[in-house]
Write a structure and sequence with these properties.
2 copies of one chain form a homodimer. Chain A has 212 residues and is α/β, with parallel strands linked by helices. Chain A is 42% helix and 20% strand. In chain A, strands 1-2-3-4-5-6-7-8 form an 8-stranded parallel β-barrel, surrounded by 6 helices. In chain A, helix 8 links the parallel strand 7 and strand 8. The longest helix of chain A has 14 residues. At the A-B interface, helix 2, helix 3, helix 4 and helix 5 of A face helix 2, helix 3, helix 4 and helix 5 of B.
Chain lengths: 212, 212
């Protein structure tokens, strides 16, 4: 299971500092929606420049204008970008096509995606599907949701989970074939983010830390 | 019917110039999603500073983190901001509450909003509901959609329409109680945006142009 650290509600400088502190125990740095909406694509290109060898995801949460948004993200250095599963299927198709063209990846954020749309989304085999509990609602039934999802959509093989993930969620999530664990405040809001990242890193089964 | 000009896929300077050219025939300036994602909130504050007396909408297309995004938009000068109808009802509620707190308005973008969510959205009486044809799909059946919508949801009184609106759409749209007509490229991509804005201004029944 890879660790993706969501950089949100920080200045670009703070985000870079957070990335530097934690990068030994983080696989993917996420330029969060708040960074993109607060500072624009500059947040992405500056984080790309600060971490030339890191996998970087742009959390665009695209709802429309897929071609414009995805090209912008990839030309500014993203390796992955997010489109909403709740967007039109045409929008998801366009994002997927642009990602293929650039040799990059799409993460489809399943936040509030209606069931009937999920059926169509099975036709994007290379996409990463992110089961996402919204910050704005308090409900946390991730394990159960994941269980049902894996059973119902075995063809969606690349899975991520996001939304208020805490360290003590890791054991129950480890029972599922989750490729990416998206962690935000449980690392970035801790007094010692480096130590918090190291705990997640160990919890998902890594030994030691990486040389970066 | 008010005219809202969507400023998209422009630099901030170009957007300000476009606003200056067209403002006599435009009621609301929209800081488009592309401007916000390309340049961040600076796009909003600079357009606010350039047009201190104009109504300004921030097309945030909020899907989550309603409180953070709406506070940011209002503190940077927006009079209205958009949340997706496809977001969780909790997110829409939060955006509505923050707007009430600031004495500003919410536009709920109905792009890809499932029918079952529309039922819940009737509980936000002061919101503007935007029927929105996605750019990424080619289908245009706006009049029919509007007819059904007005019949089905009479309690949603404040209506906007968006998505590739052209001048020759105006007569058919005028048959409905549409408060805001969102126009993008049919003004901004014209060789003479000022003249294009003036044609829309006249088409919705205004006489002369305003002194700004």
């Amino acid at each position: 299971m890879k660790i993706q650290l969501a950089l949100d509600r920080l200045s670009i400088e703070e985000a870079i500092e957070m990335g530097k502190k934690t990068q030994a125990c983080v696989d993917i740095l996420e330029v969060g929606t708040s960074l993109i909406k607060d500072y624009g694509l500059e947040s992405l290109s500056r984080i790309r420049a600060a971490f030339p060898h890191k996998v970087i995801l742009a959390d665009l949460k695209t709802m429309d204008e897929g071609e414009y948004e995805f090209r912008a993200a990839f030309t500014h250095g993203a390796d992955l970008a997010t489109v909403m599963g709740a967007a039109s299927i045409d929008t998801v198709k366009i994002c997927y096509r642009v990602a293929e063209e650039y040799g990059r990846s799409v993460m489809i954020d399943l936040l509030e995606t209606p069931k009937e749309k999920l059926e169509f989304l099975t036709c994007f085999p290379k996409a990463v599907f992110c089961l996402h509990t919204p910050k704005d609602s308090g409900i946390r039934e991730l394990s159960q949701e994941l269980k049902e999802f894996v059973h119902r959509y075995p063809q969606m093989r690349r899975l991520a989970v996001a939304g208020g993930i805490r360290l003590d969620d890791v054991p129950s999530l480890s029972a599922f074939p989750v490729e990416i664990l998206v962690v935000g405040s449980a690392i970035s809001q801790e007094r010692d983010p480096e130590a918090a990242a190291r705990r997640f890193w160990a919890a998902v089964g890594n030994e030691g830390v990486r040389h970066v």
